[in-house]
Amino acid sequence: MVRDEVSRITRLVVVSGCSGGGKSTLLAELEQRGSGIVEEPGRRVIARERMNKGRALPWVDLVAFARKALDMARRDRSWALRASGLVFFDRGLVDAAAALEHATGEAALQRVADERYNRRVFLVPPWREIFENDADRRHGYDEAVEEIERLKDAYDKLGYETLTVPRLPVTDRADFIRARLLAN
User: Fold this and answer.
1) Residue 19 contacts by C-beta under 8 Å, 6 or more apart in sequence?
2) Strand partners, 38
3) d(CA 92, CA 73)
4) How many Å apart are CA 162 and CA 153, to the nearest integer?
5) DSSP secondary structure string, the chain?
6) 159: domain range?
7) Per-residue pLDDT tens over the stretch 34-55
8) InterPro entries from the entry (predicted)?
9) How far apart are CA 54 and CA 48, in angstroms?
10) Phi and psi torsions of 38, nearest 5°
11) Is the pLDDT of residue 104 over 50?
12) Residue 168 is part of a domain; what is its CATH number?
């Protein structure tokens, strides 16, 4: 990989983890500090499917949902490679591929192995005190715990270094991430 490509990739930072752990709030804080952000593909797929009365919803057709999230995450990454400065992703290609692999058993992770992000991936763990269901997040806390274990395994298999974001106020969580990136 050429040096320019490596520097472009190190700017792409994934914040992954379970639903309901505070990822979106954390990314909003990072955006306030001047970084670019990419909203979670799954939430955007759900919004589009609802608007178009589609069926690619995780509680209706998980496979179709995961495929759409994977396509969207791939487009997000392509856009971010052309952007400048740090870009934080609320999930990414690996998350979507892990969901697809979980739903189908197909080797989806291998298909995204060469589409890299920063080697450090920040995992937001389940946090029972802030976990909430809503119209788009219908699974429970126990499923969120299972999800983060699958995601950690997926990122580990692909050679990423996963760092768990501590359960702290959002400003301290953002400081934690930025400090770890500077140590990169």
Assistant:
1) 137, 139, 144, 147
2) 89
3) 5
4) 10
5) --HHHHHHHHTEEEEEE-TTSSHHHHHHHHHHTT-EEE--HHHHHHHHHHHTT-S--TTT-HHHHHHHHHHHHHHHHHHHHHS-S-EEEES-HHHHHHHHHHHH-S-HHHHHTTS---SEEEEE---TTT----SS--S-HHHHHHHHHHHHHHHHHTTPEEEEPPS--HHHHHHHHHHHHHT-
6) 3-182
7) 999 999 998 899 999 999 999 9
8) NadR/Ttd14_AAA_dom, P-loop_NTPase
9) 8
10) -125, 120
11) yes
12) 3.40.50.300
Count the domains in the chain. 1
Rounded CA Rg of the chain: 16
Q: For position 129, what pLDDT does the model report? A: 62
**Overall pTM > 0.85:** yes
